[in-house]
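Researcher:
Attend to token order:
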Amino acid sequence: MLQLFSDTSFKLSKRLTNSYSTSFSWGIKAFSTEYRDYIYAVYGYVRLADEIVDSFHGYNKAELLNKLREDTWKAIDEGISTNPILQAFQITVNKFNIDKELIEAFLKSMEMDLSNSSYKRDYYDTYIYGSAEVVGLMCLKVFIHGNQQKYDELKFAAKQLGSAFQKVNFLRDIKSDIQERGRIYLPDVHEEVFITNSSKRKLEEEVENEFRDALIGIMKLPIGVKLGVYSAYLYYYFLFKKIKSLDVDELLSRRVRISNFKKFLLLLKSVIEVKVLRLT
């Protein structure tokens, strides 16, 4: 009955992902069925670690995160875990030969959130790599079925896309990050009073370049995942354009959102461009 447990583990990873991220859920639904469970497994694991850092107030977060790290390595090495989220994740890691270095970099970034409220440029880049770029690389391993040559070809674009997504999230969530988490995710910005339109525009220039580089790689992805990744790209790029049109004061007063109807239109646009126009 181990297969039943593993199947249920993937379903729980899917439910966890859907509960926390409607935008990623929309993109994953556009993947061919052969990819979906494994991408849910990656995001389920990422969400579990993120929640320890962001939500488990009143508990020893460092201890819980360290326990997750120990359980992660044990699950991967032994090929089994009684934790459903870890069970789905270890199956994915072992099936697609996901590098442990990527997982460790991610966990280190989660640790950084426990002791940092702002980031200088070098630490900021390290944080972005571990919290976002490596997640894109884990997904890329799934997309190309562990093919190292294809992985090396698309690695840069995957990192750029993960970085762009994360920085858009930072800009969107400035208000909640400051008020609820006491953090500022703009490089070399250390106090709320120093958040300016100039620092915002500097980060937006980086994001614009990253989106451009990422699109080149998206067009080279297998058709079974191209639609899903491209639809997520369109969603985040539209969100980014909306954020660019606002001043910092507006971002500090409200969270920018995209309506479900607009999400549907963006998904329809991606379907037309990828499947009808054969976007390459």
